[in-house]
Amino acid sequence: MPEGPSIAILREEAQRFAGKRIVAVAGNTTIAKERLLELSAEGKRRTDMIRFGTFLSWTESSVHGVCGANPTTSCPARDAYRIVFPVSVNALGSNPQLVQNFGYPK
What we know:
Blueprint: H1 5-16, H2 28-38, H3 45-51, H4 71-74, H5 89-94
C-alpha cells in the first residue's frame, strides 16, 4: 500500500522519540479544561482527572464539605486506592475466586 506524505512525516517525527520516555506534555491543563467544558455532561471528569494526575489532589472537594473552612490547608489528600472502584458485593458473592480491591472493606 503506498504511503502518503503525511505518513512519511509522522514516521520521521516518531523516530525522534524512539526509545525516549515522555514524562510531561505541555498543554495538559488546557486540554483538561477543554474536556471539562465539552464533556461535562458525559461523565468523563473522573477519568480525565486520573489521566492527568489530579484526582488524588482534587481540591474541588471543599465545595462538597470534605474539607474545612480553608481548603488550601485543611483538605486531606485522597487515598490512592480510590483510583479503582470496589468490586461489588454481588460479584464477590457469586465468584469465590474474586477478592476485594485493596483499601475497601472485605
